[in-house]
Amino acid sequence: MSERRVNETAPDQPKVVLGVGGGIAAYKACELLRRLSESGHDVRVVPTASALHFVGEATWSALSGHPASHEVWETVHEVPHVRIGQAADLVVVAPATADLLAKAAHGLADDLLTNTLLTARCPVVFAPAMHTEMWEHPATQENVATLRRRGAVVIEPAVGRLTGVDTGKGRLPEPGEIFDVCHRVLARAAAAGRRDDLSGLHVVVSAGGTREPLDPVRFLGNRSSGKQGYALARTAVARGARVTLVAANTAVRARA
Description:
Helix content: 25-40%
Mean pLDDT: 85
Strand order of the largest sheet: 2-1-3-4-5
Low-confidence stretches: 1-9
Number of domains: 2
Oligomer: single chain
Strand content: 15-25%
Number of strands: 11
CATH superfamily of the largest domain: Flavin prenyltransferase-like
Radius of gyration: 21 Å
């Protein structure tokens, strides 16, 4: 009997895109790839050009059973810069460098991975890895906050030995921890049902606290922050609905 090829995907096999950034921690992504593959996930690795300086294309292809490339211009007839993200059930970026976080936060798309991040409509997990100064820089912190507001999961980096003799916060979380986060995110997505099950529906969500005037100065109100309404609206959008959000007196900012 011939051996079943790794890249013959079962219909119910979750499709995971593993994006790999150009940092020394890229070698740890090999262990994450192993964990995802051996637990029944179909994994496609999309490295950046810089990542291939640390771990070569042959390693990613051999471990995943799929071609691994950072090029938008390869197999153009398959439109990989769109199709890979569209088909994914989860995108996890490990390591997520400061550069990758900035590109993702600002919607830049100059290679296959950043194009994939723009076209994906599935959950996205970022596992940052960089020097402490880079992680603590206000620009990086603002980019992380932006990604989290949009619904992405950004794992806190670990504290420990970094490149060279440096030690501090910025170390890539262990592959087992990243795998556990991915497993939980996929489980939540599965429990929520198909991502497009609200397609064609128009959902109206109200959010925020009410205020009833008593006189020109005072009012009766409540402490509702509006966060639950915004969360419901984001979930409806993610599941394909056209959403109208009616908000007042909220503690959160609206975004497109």
